[in-house]
Amino acid sequence: MSDTLTSGGANAGAGSSAGISPSTPTLTAEPRMSVRSVSKSYTSDRGVVKRVLASVSFNVAPEEFVAIVGPSGAGKTTLLRTIAGLMLPTSGEIFFDGDEVTGPPERLALVFQDYSRSLMPWMTIEKNVTLPLRRKKLSKDEQKRLAAEALSAVGLGDIGSHYPWQLSGGMQQRVAIARAIAYQPDALLMDEPFASVDAQTRSDLEDLILALKKQYGMTIVVVTHDIDEAVYMSDRVIVLSGSPTSVRQVVDVKLGGQRDQLVTKSLPEFVELRNTVLTAVRRPVGEPSP
């Protein structure tokens, strides 16, 4: 699936938690998401069983930003889809706000990598953003208001009447993000959301997501291959091993709440964290964590 998934029934006011700074997530609170000994296996047509995830466990606190990295083919997307309730684990459990995940949670949104396939080319930008809102019992005026607010939040407040094919790749990805946040979900999952755009647009979108997190008070989990991106954006980086995947190392990122593409990435602390994460990703199978 490449579309932006937004589960119906989200609380429109859920993203307005006051008094909680995005730089200080409530790590001692009840976890927003809890992944408990999750394993996932597939059986081929020939009956061969392939184990992709092997007893993966971690928690994500309310308003925390967590990045998930690991070697290519480690099962990062499988893990994200399982957290989103798009597939069930072979064993283990996943909880969202204390409720076991057996399908897409109502207050969660998911943005996939391929923006070119996530938008309906025959629909205007406004209609693309309001499409998932049709599942909610809202008037058309309210749907338009939420779409306008979301588009404005991603810097596209004046293009509602345009069509996706009239926009650049970076703008299309902003529309996909706007469609997700139009629900103002409690949590946002993102699977390689900036992999298909150029470096400058990628930097702009990284800063956009950080600003949206602060504005809406969302919990965010992003899968990425980009180590710099993972460290720059997150409160914690979860490093996965090769397949079958387990959690190899968890790295706390203490760079403060205000981050800047030039200043933050030139800090000695940033360089040290980047090297720590990269070393963990490249660590040979079977070698213990430091």
From TrEMBL:
<dbReference type="InterPro" id="IPR050166">
    <property type="entry name" value="ABC_transporter_ATP-bind"/>
</dbReference>
<protein>
    <submittedName>
        <fullName>ABC transporter</fullName>
    </submittedName>
</protein>
<keyword id="KW-0067">ATP-binding</keyword>
<feature type="compositionally biased region" description="Low complexity">
    <location>
        <begin position="7"/>
        <end position="23"/>
    </location>
</feature>
<dbReference type="InterPro" id="IPR027417">
    <property type="entry name" value="P-loop_NTPase"/>
</dbReference>
<dbReference type="InterPro" id="IPR017871">
    <property type="entry name" value="ABC_transporter-like_CS"/>
</dbReference>
<dbReference type="GO" id="GO:0016887">
    <property type="term" value="F:ATP hydrolysis activity"/>
</dbReference>
<keyword id="KW-0547">Nucleotide-binding</keyword>
<dbReference type="GO" id="GO:0005524">
    <property type="term" value="F:ATP binding"/>
</dbReference>
<feature type="region of interest" description="Disordered">
    <location>
        <begin position="1"/>
        <end position="33"/>
    </location>
</feature>
<dbReference type="InterPro" id="IPR003439">
    <property type="entry name" value="ABC_transporter-like_ATP-bd"/>
</dbReference>
<dbReference type="Pfam" id="PF00005">
    <property type="entry name" value="ABC_tran"/>
</dbReference>
<dbReference type="InterPro" id="IPR003593">
    <property type="entry name" value="AAA+_ATPase"/>
</dbReference>
<keyword id="KW-0813">Transport</keyword>
<feature type="domain" description="ABC transporter">
    <location>
        <begin position="33"/>
        <end position="267"/>
    </location>
</feature>
